[in-house]
Amino acid sequence: MRYLLSHRTTYTYASTVDSAHHIAHLRARNFPGQKVTAISIDTNPAPALAVQHLDHFGNLIDIYRIEKPHTRFDIEVRADVDVCFPDPPAAGSTPAWEDIRTALLGDGFPKPVEASEFTHESPLVPSVEALRAYGAHSLTPRRPILDAARELTSRIKADFEYHPGATDISTPLADVFAGKAGVCQDFAHVQIAALRAHGLAAGYVSGYIRTIHSRDELALRGADASHAWVAVWCGGKTGWVHLDPTNDLIAHEDHVAVAWGRDFSDVSPLRGVILGGDSHSYGVAVTLVPTG
Predict the structure, then answer these.
(1) For the domain 97-267, what is the CATH code?
(2) Within this chain, domains 2-83+281-290 and 97-267 share the same CATH topology
(3) Sequence ranges of the domains in the chain
(4) 89-144 pLDDT, tens per residue?
(5) DSSP letter for each residue of 255-277
(6) pTM of the model
(7) If phi over 0 gives left and psi between -120 and 50 gives alpha, with beta otherwise, what is residue 151?
């Protein structure tokens, strides 16, 4: 599936911002199953300095320094992206989750080194005992890892209410689980914590899900905004499989991935430091439209 992506973020400040530094995770990644054929990012005001580099996880980062006084900041990314994530393996064909855990533990020097990094707690995904118990209902003895993770994805969709405004980025994960409500980043963090509690590798993926334009299309929660889901390590043969607990989907043609890390704090679309500005408001407009 080929998509045209547009993502505009606007900040409006109560008073003048004299200077600003911004870090953006807005450039969609190239990897097997996704190819970015064209991309541009425009800012207003224009930056005095703009540089790019790769972060620890291989994500593309743009860094902007703006020296012109302003009361509004706009940043817009436009991209053409071809998407066709690999088909997942058949049910029952992946290794037992305990075998994956053993490989990730290794003997102190695990072979899947990059994957093993995603077994540990992270700033927004601490250890929560209730989530360990929640994950255990799916991670039954000798169950194939993808079957177990897939059931966990379905359970989160069924058990949690999609409720924008019920949480924000500062809401502790334990409170999200207790309240059983939130948005895509919350559901991703819940699934990641439930898997990591059992020694499995799970990463946070930021991106987008296609925009719906017809009553006949399947309604997808999280469209028209930044979206988030989970990548689960299923062993060396299968690799990472992307699961969307907000919509109970395996990512295939409906998702465009931008960046991945341990949790949202690693891949925030836009963050930075400003001098001045006082209070601010912001708006986000996203479309991900199939073009062929």
Answers:
(1) 3.10.620.30
(2) no
(3) 2-83+281-290, 97-267
(4) 998 999 999 999 999 998 777 778 889 999 999 999 999 999 999 999 999 999 99
(5) EEEEEEESSHHHH-SEEEEEEE-
(6) 0.94
(7) alpha
